[in-house]
Amino acid sequence: MGNQSSKSDDQKAKTATSVGIGVGLVITSVICPPLGAAATFSTLGTGIGMKVVGSLADEEGLEEAGDVFILGAEIGGVGNTATRAVQGSHAPCGGCKSLPKAFK
């Protein structure tokens, strides 16, 4: 019985971590949509990489960490899509507005 409770707590912690990552990505997307999109894709790529390497190396912990990143990126992706729907495909933030024309 105690082992099942421990697994449940572990799953809750992983879900909370994924939600935290996702919320951070959503906030980033609201502040600067292009940066939010880049951060979301980076997080997704990292999660997929961790999952693949963990699977190949037979490291269950690394696979589980990859799952956390992937779920966080999925949450962030939903936020990024919603932000683009509301603000448009590129609503420049203060940082984007101040970039020299050569970088735009």
Tell me what the structure shows.
This is 11113_t:CDS:1. The chain is mainly alpha-helical and 104 residues long. It has one domain. Helices cover 83% and strands 0% of the residues. It contains 4 helices and no strands. Helix 1 packs parallel to helix 3. The longest helix has 30 residues, at 2-31. The protein is elongated. The N and C termini lie far apart (58 Å). The model has no long low-confidence stretch (mean pLDDT 83).
Structural class computed from helices and strand pairing: mainly alpha
Strand content: under 5%
End-to-end CA span? 58 Å
Provide the domain count: 1
Number of strands: 0
Question: What is the overall shape?
Answer: elongated
Mean pLDDT: 83
What is the alpha-carbon Rg in Å?
Answer: 17 Å
Q: What's the main sheet like?
A: none
Element order, helices and strands? HHHH
Low-confidence spans? none
Strand-helix topology:
Blueprint: H1 2-31, H2 33-56, H3 60-87, H4 94-97
Helix pairs in contact: 1-2, 1-3, 2-3
